[in-house]
Write a structure and sequence with these properties.
Number of strands: 2
Helix content: over 70%
Distance between the termini: 18 Å
Strand order of the largest sheet: 1-2
Shape: rod-shaped
Largest sheet: 2 strands, antiparallel
Structural class: mainly alpha
Length: 123
Amino acid sequence: MPLSEEEQRLLDEMERNLYGSAHDVHSASGAGTRISSRGILIGFVSVALGLVLLILGVSTQFLLVGVGGFVLMFAGIVAALSIKPGKPSTYPPATSASRSASRPKRPGFMARLEDRWDDRNSS
């Protein structure tokens, strides 16, 4: 059963909004952030040293050494996973106008499905 013009217009509008929101999520996801290798190294060393202190504190039953080891391990994990602001991208973000100008206009999703359906039924 074919769609009415109003239904087709609503479907095309929803499709455009979906493609636009997917592009926005993709372009904002990793722009200008990085994890430093120095932070990972410092974090790894801190976690290893904290683990040694924690085991030492438990084995000697000295509470402050164990708590200090735990705090050092936590600080090491935070240092390893901290995200630093990175260099902004040198490429300008692609807009829908520049994307549509660079490639030819294709029929919408529903138009392609209707064409396939018509081809299948005509055979």
